[in-house]
Each structure stands twice: as C-alpha cells, then as structure tokens.
Specification:
By secondary structure, the protein is mainly α. The chain is built from 8 helices and 3 strands, in the order ααααααβββαα.
Length: 213
C-alpha cells in the first residue's frame, strides 16, 4: 500500500504548491532535431575532413555546439523525469529533485550557448533589463538556481519554500520569473537553427546568409 501524504506535508517538504502539480504538457522533441545528438561528431568530421573555422571562431563554435547538444540531452531527461514524477503519484522527493536537476542543467547549458553566440558574432546584449523577453527570463531562472545560497540568505524565496525554482502545470516558476514548457522547447528550436549552421564550417557562411534573410 502506497502512503499518501497530505497537501501540507508535500508542499512544505518537497516544493511550493507541489500538491497542485498534477500535469505537464511538455513538447516531445524526440522526433525533431535529429542531428542534435551528432552536432559535436559532425563538427569534428567536417572540420577535420573538409574545412574549419579560423581561431577564435573555431573555439566559439565547438563550445556552442557542446552546450547546445547538452541542452537538448538535458531537456529530454528533464521531460522524462518530470512525467515520471507525475505518473508515479507526484509525491516522491527523489523523483522531483531529479527532474529539477535536469531542468536546472538545461537552463544553464542553454544560457551559456546564447552567450557563446553573442561573443562569436559580437552581439552586445541578449536582452534589455526589464524587457520580459524569453532570454531575460532564461537568465533569471538560471541565476536563481545557480545562486540558491544567496536567495536563501536574502529571503528571495517564497516563505517556507525548499527550492527557489519549482515546477507547475504550465512550466518553471520563481518569485520573479517564469517560463512555460512551450517556451523551453522554443529555446531549443532557436539553438537548433544555429547549431545546424555551425556544425559544417564549409557551408556555414551560406547558412548564416539564409538566417539573415
């Protein structure tokens, strides 16, 4: 017989409002972005056998691709663990923390991928402070998870909360930012466009031109 804990217990000791977390429509990317698991391997082969970027672009491209590939991998794991948590009763702190860890890693890898693109193409800023863009909210959620000790110290969490970012039926949430599951998939779609262009240095120039049109 499986023990069912009260709403008050799970909300206090697992995550804020986890008792209300009952479903999640997280886009399945398993049938899309088919090259995402091969970006690094493709880049290696294309660079070694056909053409390569000059420094420092080669370093920017390599690190962007490994970040983008990791973001896709972590998204898949985050989705699987989140659905596993829900389908097994929605009361396992272990399963919840596994899901949250993969979401946290997804956010970090995605944000660093954006930073590498900006440095590579000498773009000033990913967002303007307070613009509410997807990029700004990605940065906020990532920093909130990264600096959890500061959030605890300065009381920048929900009263009595165990974690600074938590899962809801709609997406990821903190006291000052949120992102829907649809938007997490949109981040991957943006990274995919650039990764597909960068994985082949020989055709990258033409691919970049198509992106600008």
């Amino acid at each position: 017989m499986t023990v069912q804990y009260s709403k008050q217990i799970v909300d206090k000791y697992i995550a804020p409002n986890v008792s209300l977390f009952t479903c999640a429509e997280i886009p399945d990317i398993s049938t899309s972005a088919k090259e995402s698991s091969h970006w690094i391997a493709n880049y290696f082969l294309n660079s070694a056998l056909t053409a390569s970027f000059k420094p420092p672009m080669n370093v920017y491209a390599y690190n962007f691709l490994r970040r983008a590939q990791a973001a896709f991998n972590q998204y898949r794991l985050a989705r699987d663990c989140t659905l596993d948590f829900l389908t097994t009763g929605g009361q396992s702190p272990t399963r919840y923390c596994e899901a949250l860890f993969h979401w946290e890693t997804f956010l970090g890898q995605s944000w660093h991928a954006y930073l590498l693109l900006m440095k590579a193409f000498e773009v000033g800023k990913a967002f303007e402070k307070g613009d509410g863009s997807l990029e700004e909210r990605l940065n906020k959620l990532y920093n909130t998870m990264k600096h959890v000790e500061s959030r605890i110290e300065h009381g920048q969490m929900l009263p009595g909360a165990t974690v600074p970012v938590w899962l809801t039926n709609d997406g990821l949430c903190s006291v000052d930012a949120s992102m829907t599951y649809i938007e997490t998939a949109e981040i991957l779609r943006q990274l995919e466009i650039w990764a597909n262009a960068l994985m082949n240095p020989k055709t990258a120039k033409e691919a970049f031109a198509r992106l600008d049109t």
